[in-house]
Write a structure and sequence with these properties.
By secondary structure, this protein is of the alpha/beta class. The protein contains ten helices and 13 strands. Bound molecules: nicotinamide-adenine-dinucleotide.
């Protein structure tokens, strides 16, 4: 399939890996990114970068000139603690930004949109693994803007017939990850081990998360844009469906680095969820996607990429 795609946030962590896969598939890719957290250096030379804010009121003119087949919308305010301190800015970027993108889509005949949602929409779930039909109880404004984004897409689909896929990522890790945003524990620990600095764990380290490699997430993003019509207009978890404790993560990173750094334990943080894992059954059966990267290998790649840059 020869697609012309726009990727918002394509200079960021997940976006740049996804753009790499799109270029490999032979797609024409335009990136819209204001480079607030993304880097020009992340951008694949086969893609075209337009440095622009998703809130820009000339966005529709760009869409009108370019005539995109589909949109992957990743640009966002991504930090949960920042959303608690600044719900107004979180709402501006994550909701008004989304609506500006959707209006540009509607006015220029874009047929399909995929967006990055998050496990943050679930809050503290009643049982594990979390399935897509469970109640949404976000515990942060970030989680709230993500679940509201999904509702906007559902209504755009109903009213304006723009197909959508919303992908609720678990904790994404891999090369080019920053320390902020979600899932930062891997990059923080990796940097500490590489720099031989102490690692700090909140609580006893028995808390678990579902760590998914960025290349697998990038693959899900591409598949969402080409999935058959029978598999769209819905949300999917993108996860490994495996629980890994923070202590096990530290041990795996030590192994990858051939080191034996011991974590230091601090009191648990209020409101932190103890266990988390997302079911990936829907994505596996309906999108035909599955996670391919074993955690130990993905952590090894992450460690070596960070080590090289020190
Ligand atoms: N990393 C994770 O574990 C994770 C988990 C769940 C969901 N997500 C979601 O995935 C998406 C990508 O996250 P990421 O981890 O790659 O973060 P990132 O910060 O690396 O990427 C975000 C990109 O968006 C750009 N951007 C931000 N605000 C913008 C604006 N107003 N206009 C234009 N560009 C803007 C940034 O410059 C950056 O390149 C986000 O929507 C995030 O909420 C990430």
């Amino acid at each position: 399939m020869n697609l012309k795609v726009v990727v918002t946030g394509g200079a960021g962590f997940i976006g740049s890996h996804t753009v790499d896969k799109m270029i490999d598939r032979g797609w024409e890719v335009v990136i819209i990114d204001n480079l607030s957290t993304g880097l020009r250096a992340n951008v694949n030379i086969g893609a075209r970068l337009v440095q622009m804010d998703i809130l820009d009121n000339t966005l529709v003119e760009l869409f009108s000139r370019e005539k995109f087949d589909c949109v992957l919308h990743l640009a966002a305010q991504t930090a949960v603690p920042y959303s608690i301190e600044h719900p107004d800015i979180d709402c501006q970027v994550n909701l008004l930004g989304l609506v500006n993108v959707m209006e540009a889509c509607r006015k220029t005949g874009v047929k399909r949109v995929a967006i990055a949602s998050s496990a943050a929409v679930y809050g503290d779930a009643a049982s594990l693994p979390i399935t897509e039909d469970m109640e949404l109880k976000p515990g942060s404004f970030y989680g709230l803007t993500k679940c509201t984004s999904e509702k906007y897409l559902a209504l755009y689909s109903q009213i304006y017939h723009i197909d959508y896929v919303a992908l609720r990522y678990a904790n994404v890790y891999g090369e080019r990850q920053g320390d902020g945003g979600e899932g930062g524990v891997v990059s923080i620990f990796t940097r500490k081990i590489a720099e031989e600095q102490p690692m700090y764990v909140f609580g006893d380290g028995g808390q678990t998360r579902d760590f998914i490699y960025v290349g697998d997430v990038a693959e899900a993003n591409c598949q969402a844009l080409t999935a058959p019509v029978s598999a769209v207009n819905r949300v999917y978890n993108v996860s490994t469906q495996t629980q890994t404790s923070v202590n096990d993560l530290a041990a795996l990173l030590n192994k990858a680095a051939a080191k034996s750094a011991k974590p230091n334990y601090l009191p648990a943080r209020d409101g932190d969820i103890y266990h988390s894992t997302l079911s990936n059954k829907a994505a596996v059966t309906l999108l035909g996607w599955k996670p391919a990267m074993p955690l130990a290998d993905g952590l090894g790649r992450t460690y070596h990429s960070i080590k090289e840059k020190l």
